[in-house]
Structure to design on (845 residues):
């Protein structure tokens, strides 16, 4: 069953504009592309007009009797006409005459639909595309959906949670078109959507799906497109968008012209210069493609892209993978030219293989190295050890390191990179770690630098206590920037675990910018250390709860790293987990955190993995409601305390200071305390003192920092206090504040709703149920029968509810329940289990 969808919230500005334009006679042309949602907009517009008592003539120009129905409609009716691109010459004449006679109407036109001959004649131009400034024709354009719009549609149409990377992939592949988004949601439900390393649609289950976009592309493949056109569309869908000139250079102008004429080469949303073939079209066309012709075109395009690489202009990650994963036969008659071509392709294969290797992608690494072996690709010793570890395990990695030669040779960076890899192999193989390096005070600077580096690496791969002063000294003087940053971050991680900000006085954005500069210029041999620093910096921003620009800074950080698409995935999951926690949605945070853990770089050290695992464990405990424990054993570790706090489990924090002393004690005179710790203290102490004014003040500060969930909990608690005090005005104010909070939160998190948060009521479920029945006017005996309990039990529940809500009698209890009904007293409506179907997509054309 399809859920109700509030598309007017997504296209609200369009509705307002259309209603304004319809106040005047003439024709309003709603211009969009296939799948842009014009059908849904017209449907909502017709319903709105009918509710206001306005006569409406609503029809589709696809209908065979469209001309007759249009001619017989009242002239004063608003003409709401869909699918104008299908208008017949007869219907076009009728429409022209009616508009000239003073009729008013709105029609939807898909500008990327293949043109029909009569749509270029004078009659069409006079009505729909007039050149006169005095024309009564006006235009309203349907702009592509923003990412927030797409998230709102996903939240409205899907009952099950869709993770952040999948949601982002659906938005990207929908090209801002609602109908395509709905079709992609169907594919995602079937497991046919892939997010890594970049968004793609699997062609496997497509033949059995009755999707409009597939039918359209398939019909073109049968009737209009040559085999070459089909192959071209498939190839271009696997590459990044380009200008028309760039597409011409890759595949030839005739094929580009054919795809453009049939609407298969689509303009990138919000960029008029770039064009590409959407995955939805290509997935259907691939089933019609000739395999031999497709393989030959792929080879040709790969060779042309490699020519760009040979000029020293690097291909994007996606195009590099395209080239590296395609076979390339001889293309140069001279051996020297062929050798140079093989060298370029070999370097692409090696580069892409190393990118996938960094994330432990076994299948991709194996396939790429097999192709690389054909053209003599060689790997550095450390890369050979990484490959051995990924394919065969840590002991194989150790053997490969031993076979690589003397560990004391090479530069300081090489030796420390080898040391870091050795330490990880030892941890993962459960072999004992070597003894810690000795004190370095009396050593030569060169020896001291190496021992300092080994000390930092050792601490990252064990769980021993750290010496902040020693690490601060290493951070200040070590010549290798990656080691310097990692020494500093060891102290920072310990600080945030205890609720304190990092030592260095810098904003999260400034810190991320510094890590970006280091990662962008790191050498390949130090890549593992740089990635460790990047992951750590992202986690520090997560723990600091920063909402002042960290997301944009982390996006820039991902762009600076090799293997950008793979880094972007775990960063997306981490950011989504942070947003979910701020919204009080622990289950969503749990899902995103688990996905993030599975997408992290492979070669990061044991301490960092343990830190990540510990946070995930505490999120799991919070989701489970701390069923097996009542007290957090480690008073210095605030992770569990704050997870309980943001999840609304103040009952687990309690009012006793010995349980969570830091949240109950007076603010410390330490400017480095994390913002969330300060805000949580204000909130918890206001709860303990039963002070609604302080609760609302805390809620205001929490909302300013985008801590939507805790802010809602504070308002709900204040409202409950006011309900018991019978303070009608204050209760209504709290209700209004909750609504404002939800509106603000949904600007960035469209899925947020305070109805999904834990209830703030102090009534037990049975007391609340009894009070609701009292509102319905049932007698005690009727309530007892309905609740399957005794009349005495009903009387007890009513007495408790009256006492808690300050009601003198049953009538007053019913009055309070009606007067102060709010988010915490409303029964939660179960979300329908549903899946968007092709009917919904059809209405969203």
């Amino acid at each position: 069953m399809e859920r109700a969808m509030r598309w007017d919230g997504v296209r609200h500005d369009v509705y307002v504009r259309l209603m304004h334009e319809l106040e005047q006679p003439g024709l309003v042309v709603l211009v969009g592309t296939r799948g842009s949602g014009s059908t849904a907009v017209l449907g909502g517009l017709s319903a709105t007009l009918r509710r206001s008592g306005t006569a409406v003539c609503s029809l589709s120009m696809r209908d065979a009797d469209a001309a007759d129905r249009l001619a017989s409609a009242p002239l004063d009716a608003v003409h709401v006409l869909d699918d104008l691109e299908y208008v017949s010459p007869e219907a076009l004449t009728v429409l022209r005459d009616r508009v000239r006679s003073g009729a008013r109407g709105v029609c939807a036109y898909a500008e990327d639909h293949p043109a029909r001959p009569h749509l270029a004649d004078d009659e069409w131009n006079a009505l729909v595309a007039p050149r006169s400034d005095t024309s009564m024709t006006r235009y309203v354009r349907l702009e592509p959906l923003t990412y927030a719009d797409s998230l709102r549609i996903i939240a409205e149409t899907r009952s099950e949670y869709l993770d952040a990377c999948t949601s982002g992939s659906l938005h990207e592949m929908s090209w801002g078109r609602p109908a395509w988004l709905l079709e992609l949601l169907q594919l995602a439900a079937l497991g046919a959507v892939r997010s890594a390393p970049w968004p793609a649609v699997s062609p496997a289950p497509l033949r059995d799906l009755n999707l409009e976009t597939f039918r359209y592309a398939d019909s073109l493949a049968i009737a209009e497109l040559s085999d070459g056109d089909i192959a071209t569309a498939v190839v271009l869908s696997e590459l990044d968008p380009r200008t028309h000139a760039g597409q011409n250079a890759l595949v030839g102008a005739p094929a580009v012209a054919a795809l453009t004429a049939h609407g298969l080469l689509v303009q990138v949303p919000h960029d008029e210069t770039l064009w590409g073939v959407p995955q939805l079209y290509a997935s259907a066309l691939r089933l019609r493609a000739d395999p031999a012709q497709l393989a030959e075109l792929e080879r040709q395009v790969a060779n042309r892209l490699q020519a760009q690489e040979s000029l020293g202009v690097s291909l994007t990650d996606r195009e590099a993978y395209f080239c590296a994963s395609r076979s390339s036969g001889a293309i140069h008659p001279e051996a020297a030219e062929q050798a140079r071509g093989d060298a370029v392709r070999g370097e692409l294969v090696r580069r892409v293989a190393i990118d996938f290797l960094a994330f432990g992608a076994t299948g991709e690494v194996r396939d790429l190295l097999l192709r690389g072996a054909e053209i003599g690709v060689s790997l550095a010793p450390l890369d050979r050890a990484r490959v051995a570890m990924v394919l065969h395990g840590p002991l194989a990695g150790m053997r490969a390191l031993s076979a690589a030669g003397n560990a004391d040779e090479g530069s300081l960076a090489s030796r420390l990179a080898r040391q870091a890899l050795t330490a990880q192999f030892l941890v993962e193989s459960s072999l004992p770690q070597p003894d810690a390096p000795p004190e370095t005070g009396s050593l030569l600077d060169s020896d001291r630098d190496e021992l300092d580096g080994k000390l930092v690496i050792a601490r990252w791969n064990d769980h021993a206590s750290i010496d902040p002063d020693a690490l601060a000294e290493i951070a200040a003087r070590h010549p290798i920037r990656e080691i310097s940053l990692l020494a500093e971050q060891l102290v920072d991680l310990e600080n945030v675990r205890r609720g304190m900000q990092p030592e260095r006085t810098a904003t999260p954005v400034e810190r991320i910018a510094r890590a970006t500069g280091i990662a962008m210029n790191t050498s390949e041999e130090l890549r593992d250390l740089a990635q460790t620093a990047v992951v750590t910096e992202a986690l520090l921003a997560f723990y600091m709860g920063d909402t002042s620009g960290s997301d944009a800074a982390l996006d820039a950080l991902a762009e600076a790293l090799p293997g950008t698409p793979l880094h972007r995935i775990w960063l997306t999951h981490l950011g989504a987990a942070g947003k979910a926690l701020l919204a009080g949605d622990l289950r969503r945070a749990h899902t995103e955190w688990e996905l993030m853990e599975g997408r992290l770089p492979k070669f990061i050290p044991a301490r960092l993995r343990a830190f990540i695992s510990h946070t995930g464990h505490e999120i799991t405990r919070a989701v489970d409601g701390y069923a097996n424990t009542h007290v957090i054993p480690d008073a210095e570790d605030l992770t569990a305390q704050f997870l309980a706090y943001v999840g609304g489990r103040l009952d687990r924090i309690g009012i006793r200071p010995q349980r969570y002393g830091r949240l109950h004690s007076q603010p410390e005179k330490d400017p480095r305390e994390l913002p969330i710790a300060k805000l949580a203290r204000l909130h918890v102490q206001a709860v303990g003192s039963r002070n609604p004014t302080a609760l609302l003040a805390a809620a205001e500060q929490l909302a300013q920092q985008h801590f939507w969930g805790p802010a809602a909990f504070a308002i709900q608690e204040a409202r409950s206090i006011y309900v018991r005090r019978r303070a009608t005005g204050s209760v209504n104010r709290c209700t209004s504040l909750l609504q404002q909070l939800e509106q603000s939160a949904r600007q960035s998190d469209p899925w947020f709703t305070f109805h999904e948060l834990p209830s703030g009521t102090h009534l037990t479920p049975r007391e609340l149920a009894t009070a609701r029945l009292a509102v319905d006017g049932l007698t005690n005996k009727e309530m007892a029968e309905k609740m399957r309990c005794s009349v005495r039990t009903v009387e007890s529940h009513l007495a408790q509810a009256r006492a808690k809500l300050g009601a003198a009698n049953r009538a007053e209890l019913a009055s309070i329940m009606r007067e102060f009904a709010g988010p915490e007293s409303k029964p939660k409506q179960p979300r329908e289990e549903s899946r968007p179907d092709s009917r919904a997509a059809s209405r969203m054309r």
In short: Confidence is low (pLDDT under 50) at residues 1-7, 628-635, 654-664, 822-841. Residues 785 and 791 are 8 Å apart (CA to CA). The longest strand covers residues 26-32. The longest helix spans residues 335-357.
